[in-house]
Amino acid sequence: MPIKLNPPWIGIAVPTFLIGFIGYSSHYFILSNFASKGQQWSFQFTLIMTWISYIMAIYTKPGNPPDEFTPGPRQWKNFCKKCKNFKPERTHHCKSCKQCVLVMDHHCPWTMNCVGYQNFPHFMRFLIWVIITTLFLEYLLLKRIIMLWQSRHSRIFVYKSELCLLTVNAPLNAFIWLTISLLFARCIVNQGLSGMTQIESWEQERIENLFYRKRLIPQLIENLREVFPEGSPMDVEGATELLVNRDVQLIDMVNFPYDRGFIKNLRFFMGPFYTWLIPWSVPTESGFTFQLNDLAMYDSSSPLEDRLMALPWPPDRGFLKLDVETNCSSSNLTVGNTRGETVLKKRLTEFQTDLGRVQWENEWGETLSDFGVDIEAEN
């Protein structure tokens, strides 16, 4: 679960203290006693790169949508109630930064900044340099521990300060390496393998929850008629089959349209591969227009499942207009006959928004608000 700090500046103070304390105390009280000049210079280089990437992650703005942005014809019309402006796809309003953030991943308490499209590479470089620095330092610390253990019966002189700092820094440094490595792995899985931000990954879990509760399919059919009114003839047979078919899978009808493969996903988030380790490099695209994968291309002659994959993200638009149950006979969608033609009708029910999007928690106990999103600005 995301951490909330009060006062917020603690989020900067803690990493700053840890980087400074572990890095410089290890160098001057431990490494200087046995490491070669090359090893010491290499360690200082990685430590400096950690500082630079951390500063860049703190001060680089995450990216904001242009004024008076107008959504495309086949996009959700998401209006920010705080900024009084339409939001591009994948954009959310941060309750801490008090602004809309392009391709918002989360609000990071350890940088007091949102992680968005323009500063995501800085955030990733910070993680990379922390992993490299702590791994290299752990190797040197363990090497020193082994040296001291092997010479424990000799009359070698060892400073008490070195022994104390070895006892503290070695496990603390290993813990930091482990936690940052797990966070880095999560980013690689989300952004690289799936093309998703953390918020979109959370949204995917919510969509899966709706699907297994049998509340998703009728809403997708209704949204398809709204987004593609000119090319979405009511496929009664296909809709009925989807509603009653127990073998249908979520992957058969829901597509994350921004996933274009591992390499293209990383290039979108990080920029050209040859710039990934350059401290000042940023992505090259706008952050408010996106190339979609092939499954997101709409063809009115395709089966209903394929047409549902062309819906913008999230496919349920983030709330339900239909109070649906488990099958066609008990849901808001019913089969009727009008002038000799079979049609699929929506039963009249009281409009009910899906409060679950605001209140729903994933298996980690995370809500949309935990990622820093201002839920009052969401529509």
UniProtKB/TrEMBL annotation:
Location, primary (coarse class): endoplasmic reticulum
Transmembrane segments: 12-31, 43-60, 122-142, 163-184
Domain remark in the UniProt entry: The DHHC domain is required for palmitoyltransferase activity.
Described function: Mediates the reversible addition of palmitate to target proteins, thereby regulating their membrane association and biological function.
CC per GO annotation: endoplasmic reticulum membrane
The entry's keywords: Acyltransferase, Endoplasmic reticulum, Lipoprotein, Membrane, Palmitate, Transferase, Transmembrane, Transmembrane helix
Family listed: Belongs to the DHHC palmitoyltransferase family. PFA4 subfamily.
Gene: PFA4
Recorded catalytic activity of this chain's protein: L-cysteinyl-[protein] + hexadecanoyl-CoA = S-hexadecanoyl-L-cysteinyl-[protein] + CoA
GO molecular function: protein-cysteine S-palmitoyltransferase activity
Statement: the UniProt record of this protein carries the keyword Lyase: no
Record protein name field: Palmitoyltransferase PFA4
Stretches assigned to the Palmitoyltransferase DHHC domain: 77-204
PANTHER family xref list: PALMITOYLTRANSFERASE ZDHHC16 (PTHR12246)
Catalytic-site annotation from UniProt: C108
Places the protein is found: Endoplasmic reticulum membrane; Membrane
EC primary class: transferase
Membrane topology: Multi-pass membrane protein
EC number(s) given by UniProt: 2.3.1.225
